[in-house]
């Protein structure tokens, strides 16, 4: 299979590497050096021009938001071939993806939204969970390719459903990171040793991925790696809030989480990691992390 892969960022770079084990992968990236390195190191083909990606049977985009995907769709529209499958692995906006799918359908191109979860470590180890929105036959085609990048691949519903559940599940994580940081920092402020606070939390009802995996490294060891940009996380929660608005749903926790993450983004800047919201909580209370 010929695959055109567009967007070799923290997630796309390793994903394209896995696909190259079984397919001919042609890579394009805005910053060309990354695509050159990918071709050199992983046996992929460097696209001389982005339109070369449209010669493939399958096009995969892994970009920050639906806006960038839309720009790429516009660039490729004139050269798209009938029968191509477009897999958008970006954590995008379901409303935009439905419009994109309709636009591509006029060219005979099928579209699935296939966002992923599992962080950069999941992309590196090909253990991602991938949630797909699209027609059953397009899901089947996409699954057969994406199995090289992920362990769990789930058909969620029609186009847009993958993007919708992705941002909703990320919002659950955001709220969990925030409340767990808040309570553990409060325990410290109260005078409880942080290690002890973690031990109790992880042996009890407050346990979560945040308390077990995400926060100990930061709050106990003082290591704050950039794993997932706060800017991306804020974008996801804002899309989730827009879904609530569209559905005329009352979601006060989601709204609060969105406000807290957006305020943190303004404070920390677009290169911050999302777990750094814990620093904002500490600052709000005049304490340290
Ligand atoms: P990165 O910021 O690491 O990479 C973004 C990629 O998009 C880069 O290849 C970048 O190119 C490219 N890009 C940015 N703007 C444009 C543009 N205007 N035109 C063309 N290309 C552009 O992001 P991630 O890989 O971390 O994330 C990608 C998607 O995956 C996001 O939607 C994110 O929410 C989602 N995601 C991320 C996870 C993570 O842990 N990082 C986990 C799960 C999902 P360039 O190299 O030139 O900057």
The level of helicity is 40-55%
Mean pLDDT: 97
Which structural class matches the secondary elements?
A: alpha/beta
Strands of the widest sheet, in order across it, are: 3-2-1-4-5-6
Give the C-alpha Rg.
Answer: 20 Å
* Ligand identities: NADPH dihydro-nicotinamide-adenine-dinucleotide phosphate
| Low-pLDDT residue intervals, each spanning 5 or more residues | none
Oligomer: single chain
- Please, how many helices? 12
Q: In whole angstroms, how far apart are the ends? A: 50 Å
Please tally the β strands and state the result. 9
Give the SSE string: EHEHEEHEHEEHEHEHHHHHH
Beta-strand content: 5-15%
**Approximate shape:** globular
Q: Biggest β-sheet, characterized?
A: 6 strands, parallel
SSE layout:
Elements: E1 2-6, H1 12-19, E2 24-28, H2 32-42, E3 45-46, E4 58-61, H3 66-76, E5 85-88, H4 94-105, E6 110-113, E7 116-117, H5 119-125, E8 128-133, H6 136-146, E9 150-157, H7 161-190, H8 194-202, H9 209-220, H10 230-246, H11 252-268, H12 277-284
Parallel strand pairs: 1-2, 1-4, 2-3, 4-5, 5-6, 8-9
Antiparallel strand pairs: 7-8
Bound molecules: NADPH dihydro-nicotinamide-adenine-dinucleotide phosphate.
NADPH dihydro-nicotinamide-adenine-dinucleotide phosphate binds at residues 7-12, 29-31, 34, 62-64, 68, 71, 90-91, 116-117, 119-120, 227-228, 232.
